[in-house]
Design brief:
- The protein is mostly beta strands.
- It has one domain: Beta Barrel (M1 Pyruvate Kinase, Domain 3), CATH 2.40.33.20.
- Helices cover 13% and strands 32% of the residues.
- The strands form three sheets. Strands 1-6-5-11-8-7-13 form a seven-stranded mixed β-barrel.
- This is MOSC domain-containing protein.
- One of its GO terms (molecular function) is pyridoxal phosphate binding.
- It comes from Cryobacterium shii.
- InterPro entries: MoCF_Sase_C (IPR005302), MOSC_domain (IPR052716), Pyrv_Knase-like_insert_dom_sf (IPR011037).
Length: 183
């Protein structure tokens, strides 16, 4: 997967804590902070639920990435979603984001690099967007394993501007590849 490539479909940000984020022409990623002008940016966690648990916790959720293929899958079950509606900053196409190992670096466009920290754990606010949507994003298989499909989270290790159409290059971590946990 070292040579895997995808593309940025859409970018979103919001300076307030709302569930969905408006689509914008570009976003600027800032190293160690996240998306400039986004409510979830910062060196320490800015997610409201996580701030209540541990306000000094390192922000492992600076950037939320979601595959556009999820929208295609959900459309087959009657859900209609567009980029930004699930709160993601970067909507991608052509990459198996959930299959990436912990520590993978995603090179977005010319300069930006996001290091994958884990899977997004979708919250019940998703059902406010469309009733029953949460159940489709967290499923339990026949073996009792929980699968989450709400995208991945990462931290910015190299800043830069990201726009729709930018290529994404995958850089796998050295050594053993660890599966993604929930952040």
């Amino acid at each position: 997967m070292q040579d895997a490539r995808g593309a940025v479909v859409s970018v979103s940000r919001d300076d307030r804590h709302r569930f969905s984020k408006p689509v914008v022409p570009d976003i600027r990623l800032i190293s160690g902070v996240g998306v400039e002008g986004d409510a979830h940016a910062g060196a320490t966690t800015a997610h409201r639920y996580l701030v209540r648990k541990d306000p000094g916790r390192a922000n492992l959720t600076q950037v939320h990435l979601l595959p556009a293929e999820l929208f295609d899958d959900l459309a087959e079950t009657g859900f209609t979603l567009a980029p930004g509606e699930l709160g993601e900053n970067v909507t991608t196409r052509g990459l198996d984001l959930l299959g990436l190992p912990l520590g993978t670096r995603l090179h977005l466009g010319a300069d930006a690099v996001v290091q994958v920290t884990g899977m997004r754990n979708p919250c019940s606010l998703i059902n406010g967007l469309q009733r029953g949507l949460m159940k489709t994003l967290i499923e339990t298989d026949d073996a009792g394993r929980v699968t989450r499909r709400a995208g991945i989270m990462g931290i910015v290790v190299s800043g830069g501007t990201v726009t729709p159409g930018d290529p994404i290059r995958v850089e796998l971590p050295a050594g053993d590849h660890l599966p993604l946990g929930v952040v």
